[in-house]
Amino acid sequence: MAKNEKNSVIGGYRIIEKIGEGGMAEIYTAQQAALRRMVVIKKLKDPNREIVARFKKEALLSAGFSQENVLSIYDFIYHGRSYYLVMEYVDGEDLRTLLDRHSPFPIDIAVLIILEIARGLEYTHNQNIIHRDIKPGNILISRDGKVKLIDFGVAKDDDDSKLTMTGLIVGTPAYMSPEQAHGDPLTPQSDLYALGILLYEMLTGLKPFYGSNNTEILAKIIKGRYTSAPVLNPEIPRKIQRIIRKSLHRDRRRRYKTATAMIHDLEKTLPWQHRGRKKIILARFLEQLESAPAATTDETLKMNMAENASGKAWMGWRLLLTLSFILASFSTLQRFHKTQMGYVRLEHSGENIELRMDGKPLTARPASTLSGPFLKGTHEITAHNILTNASYIRVFHLFPDDTARISLRFPGNSQGSTSRFHISPAGARLFIDGIRIENITAPLQLSPGWHRIRISGGANTWIDEQRFFRPAETYTFVYDLNKGP
């Protein structure tokens, strides 16, 4: 197939256009007529034995994948003395392109992306497959907010044998783990180390390990020394700082043991509203980035600041870096919030209120509650007053860069509860809120809320407790005190 030839047919796939080219392959979009779907076809450029073996291996490893964060492989074709890999088509951008044009990212966006990649790794690691080349160029973000892990051509599984007979270290130096830089055997924790590098880079705009050549980069990785992320971006929360430090520990025994453990910590740093609408948030963020001018902090400046972070001029460098970070990220972050996010202020009287926003619990503070940010669009607020058993439901539209004010108005419910007491021995005395009840056997009407129940006989108090009574409920209490308190 000629480089620019269109409408060629390869194994049932009609070539549409060439969209890229790397050192090993040419990339085309194509149409699969039988299923009426777009695909991507990777054509091998250099059919030497080792590269063909790697190509076939990517097809074999990926063919069985069925997880939303891992790119699907559909077919492997030998046609006209060339090898072709047919893959899922993703309409979007790779993370490398986004980082080169817009970095650092807002904190929640970076964590959402890392969380999705970690889910993909959790799936592949459970199948005993180590990716070994986690880097921004191998992460795709689609325009509908999906995050995809691609390129398992250098991945390793339990059946891997001699695909690296040349003795070369496989992977991308800036994203390697210390054991990978040493050429030692890898584990799933090696992938998680690279994930920590990605999180660091998205939040600071700079890789933790850098240098003028690969040898210098690998030497820094092996030593495990890098500038702390909050030095480059003081806005990074402590919980995320800890995740980065744990992921980038030189001793793999002190890193995350599994992707599942890392996912658990990542989820705790995100509001449930963001986790529940992750695809919408990422899709809108990508849309914002593609329509905005490039805005990144100068990498040379950041490197110099990082190098001098522990020297005499540390405070001056940190001040300059903070200003640089603000200039680079403020406009992107503000634009995203002003065009996509809003807040909700709930006004209510009294306590004992349970709140839910779009079905998820919401903290309710007395008098006034400001919550958010939430994505623009339609939302549902439900409130329940546990004291009166009354409910409030409202569907409303939230506009971007605005605060929706909602005043909770519960219908009145003065109906009390009915309570019956069966107490032994017969001479026991019953007190409700300090008032003695003369006819213990008769049903009692109590107002909703907390009441104090005290039962005594002679000089002894046998029962003294607080109980909550809901409106329109019937309660029966049995106290057998013949055996004493």
From TrEMBL:
A GO MF term: ATP binding
Binding residue positions for ATP: K43
Keyword tRNA processing: no
EC number: 2.7.11.1
Source species taxonomy: Bacteria, Pseudomonadati, Calditrichota, Calditrichia, Calditrichales
Stored PANTHER family: MITOGEN-ACTIVATED PROTEIN KINASE KINASE KINASE 20-RELATED, SERINE_THREONINE-PROTEIN KINASE NEKL-3
Full protein name: non-specific serine/threonine protein kinase
Pfam family name, one: Pkinase
SUPFAM superfamilies: Protein kinase-like (PK-like) (SSF56112)
Superkingdom per UniProt: Bacteria
Domain Protein kinase, residue spans: 13-267
Alphabetically ordered keywords of this record: ATP-binding, Kinase, Nucleotide-binding, Serine/threonine-protein kinase, Transferase
Major enzyme class: transferase
Keyword Kinase listed: yes
Record Gene3D superfamilies: Phosphorylase Kinase, domain 1, Transferase(Phosphotransferase) domain 1
